[in-house]
Write a structure and sequence with these properties.
About 35% of the residues lie in helices and about 20% in strands. The strands form 8 sheets. A 6-stranded mixed beta sheet has the order 1-7-8-11-13-12. It has a 5-stranded mixed beta sheet with strand order 6-5-2-14-15. A 5-stranded mixed beta sheet has the order 18-29-26-19-25, with helices on both faces. It is α+β, with helices and mostly antiparallel strands. The protein has 19 helices and 29 strands.
């Protein structure tokens, strides 16, 4: 008989979830370490060399406890006691490995601060030195925590090495990815492994001192060079925020300049280099709202063409809005779309309250605005001096004229300053979903090359045809004698005249329909921007708030003081109340009778669910006259309308749901400060889906 027992590797701590306080390279800076632990809420007893964590929290030290600093023995005592008490974990650093080598009697050069540590240890009792030797020699190369979602290692770790144990893995954890060469300062040449990191686990590491915490592709370096006069840093997980204390003084002069004069430093340095392999080919993306979304290879290729040639800087593209499905085809004889169908869609799926918003005939525009240039550098990685952007549904800058964009952003920033938005929302940037008018501001080419030529040619041709038919009918009526054949001919001309007159009237209505949404823009005051979603601010997406909250918040903080920014008319409808439903229909009729495009019907909750199914975030219901722009001047004629009522919405609705899920996912990833490639793959997928063959009239 045999019993098989599976034992996890020493580095496997997947069952330990945290929360953790991960502390960067200490290098003998005992006073700063005590100050940092106190700031983190630990009960620190400097005389007993012990720090007791707050309930439930655990400290994790990234190694390099000693060398260069003034109090190496004190740091060793404190960390050893915390680890023995179960209050902390500690991984090996390259300085710890070198100290262990020396204490075991092997040859180790007393350089880079090791001489200081050895000198201090020589003044300690032999039993402590023996305990310290066992401790540093027994340090693990890295730990994997929280079901594999968190990895801590002194110099970082590639995905393929995580959770494994070997000499190669240990060397990587101690020294990073090196070439074996040295630079002009005598330091090892290190390869930027984090630039290519695409692992799912967050890797927190130190080893290479940086002026500020650097986050690249979910790999976070928190060695901020305390011993060199910088800071001692702790990274709180899963909260993902930084706690720091300044060094009391510079204890050791680095061989390589630690704070290069005049060098721009980002609080959250993001990897600027996107990898084409992250977006090419058939891909399966997982989102919070929809478990798996497939992006086909041919769609990815089309999106790459658009993105690489026309799109704005990917750092700005934290969200691309989804397409919107129309309501079901109306059962009423003279309508293609009607509010009752939009209401029934939600009511049949358990939604009892909706918000109807006036649909502006403009162009969808996403606006990201930062409080100042520093924020665009530190939060978005933008270093060209811009403080925001206005871009289209396809990720292109809305304005070719940079001056117009800057001026509109400045007016928006002024409105937010005046309303106290930045303070009330504890943020220094905001992302808004808006409609920008006039329609002709973005669709001038469409107007000049499609709508206007159709209107001119149609009016000219039909006007001449109607005039000829009238002359022919009058000529027959002037005859004194009508034979039977002539009578039949007269009847045929009358029917033809009626038909062409109806077509002429339809074309006049078509021309009136698109002209309502066009006006000349001679100054900034001629633009109109209608925000309808407050999408995200620092640390939060606002998808948990209902649509009335969005309308009220925008009215309070954005609109009202500057005529450029206008509120959106809206109406709340109780789907269980017949009179409320009737009022919603009347409101739509008033909007469309006055020449409006129609309305958008949204569930009361920003994200509405039926069980595990996400419902449409919005359903548009367009007016009878406006639809002439979409389906052609004569779509209301009975034979055309009957044919159009057979349209299918299934593919459009599936597309809308996928794009909505991807848009929210990209926002949430950005707010969580995930790497650029993780945010960008969602925005890229939305653009890829736009190349799906779906009836554009929907």
């Amino acid at each position: 008989a045999a019993e098989i027992v599976r034992k996890p590797l020493w580095n496997n701590k997947r069952d330990i979830k945290g929360p953790f306080d991960i502390i960067g390279d200490v290098h003998g800076c005992f006073d700063e370490l005590c100050a940092l632990l106190t700031q983190l809420g630990y009960d620190v007893d400097e005389h007993a060399f012990m720090a007791t964590p707050p309930e439930g929290r655990t400290a994790v030290f990234l190694g390099d406890l000693c060398d260069r600093g003034p109090k190496n023995v004190e740091v060793l005592r404190l960390v050893m006691n915390m680890v023995d008490a179960g209050a902390a974990f500690c991984v090996a650093g390259n300085h710890d490995a070198k100290l262990a080598k020396h204490l075991k009697g092997a040859k180790a050069s007393l350089t880079h601060g090791l001489d200081t540590t050895v000198e201090q240890l020589q003044q300690q009792p032999s039993d402590f030195v023996h305990t310290a030797r066992r401790f540093v020699d027994g340090l693990i190369s890295h730990y994997v925590f929280n079901d594999g979602k968190l990895v801590v290692a002194h110099a970082g770790l590639k995905e393929k090495y995580q959770g494994r144990g070997s000499g190669r893995v240990r060397d990587f954890c101690l020294y990073g990815d090196t070439t074996g060469e040295t630079d002009e300062y005598g330091l090892p040449v290190r390869l930027p492994w984090a630039n290519e990191y695409r692992g799912k686990a967050t890797v927190v590491y130190g080893h290479t001192p940086v002026p500020e915490v650097q986050e690249t592709n979910n790999a976070i370096c928190i060695d901020t060079g305390c011993v060199f006069g910088g800071k001692l840093t702790a990274y709180r997980y899963p909260e993902r925020y930084i706690v720091q204390v300044d060094a009391l003084r510079t204890y050791y002069q680095p061989a390589k300049p630690f704070l290069p004069e005049g060098e721009a430093v980002l609080d959250s340095a993001q990897d600027d280099m996107l990898n084409i392999d992250d977006v090419l080919g058939k891909r399966h993306l997982t989102t919070r709202l929809r478990r798996s979304i497939t992006v086909n290879a041919e769609n990815s290729a089309a999106a790459l063409e658009v993105m690489s040639r026309f799109a704005a800087d990917p750092h700005w593209l934290i969200y691309l809005p989804p397409t919107m499905s129309p309501c079901e085809t109306s059962r009423l004889p003279d309508y293609l779309e009607h509010p009752l169908e939009a209401f029934n869609y939600y009511k049949s799926r358990g939604v009892t309250k909706v918000v109807c918003e006036q649909k502006h005939m403009g162009s969808r525009a996403v606006i990201v605005v930062c409080r100042d240039e520093r924020v665009s550098k530190t939060r978005f990685g933008i270093c060209d001096g811009s403080t925001g952007i206005i871009y289209t549904r396809t990720g292109r800058r809305f304005f070719e004229d940079d001056a117009t964009e800057r001026a509109l952003l400045e007016r928006l920033r002024a409105a937010l300053d005046a309303s106290g938005f930045w303070t009330d929302f504890a943020t220094d940037w905001v992302c808004l979903d808006t409609e920008l008018m006039p329609w002709s501001a973005k669709a001038r080419t469409l107007l000049e090359e499609q709508y206007a030529p159709v209107g001119r040619a149609g009016r000219s041709g039909l006007m001449a045809s109607v005039q000829e038919l009238k002359c022919a009918q009058e000529a027959l009526s002037d005859r004194d004698v009508l034979v039977e054949a002539q009578s039949a001919q007269k009847t045929d001309i009358g029917e033809l005249l009626t038909r062409y007159t109806a077509r002429e009237q339809a074309l006049e209505l078509y021309t009136e329909a698109y002209r309502r949404y066009c006006w000349d823009v001679n100054s900034l005051d001629d633009y109109r921007i209608a925000p309808f979603h407050l999408l995200a601010t620092e640390g939060k997406t606002w998808c948990e708030e209902n649509h009335l909250w969005h309308m009220q918040t925008i009215a309070r903080y954005v609109t009202g003081n500057d005529a450029v920014f206008m509120a959106t008319n809206h109406l709340s409808v109780d789907l269980l109340d017949e009179e409320s439903v009737a009022e919603g229909v009347r409101w739509w009729e008033q909007l469309t009778d006055a020449g409006g495009e129609g309305m958008v019907v949204k569930p009361y909750d920003f994200i509405a669910m039926k069980g595990a199914e996400v419902l449409q975030p919005a359903v548009k219901c367009r007016g009878r006259e406006y639809l002439r722009i979409i389906y052609g001047p004569e779509y209301t004629l009975s034979d055309h309308l009957e044919r159009l009522k057979k349209r299918s919405l299934s593919k459009k609705r599936a597309l809308a749901l996928n794009e909505f899920a991807l848009g929210m996912e990209s926002l949430e990833r950005f707010v969580r400060k995930e790497p650029l490639h993780r945010v960008h793959e969602c925005a890229f997928a939305v653009l890829a889906m736009e190349s799906e063959p779906v009836d554009p009239r929907l």
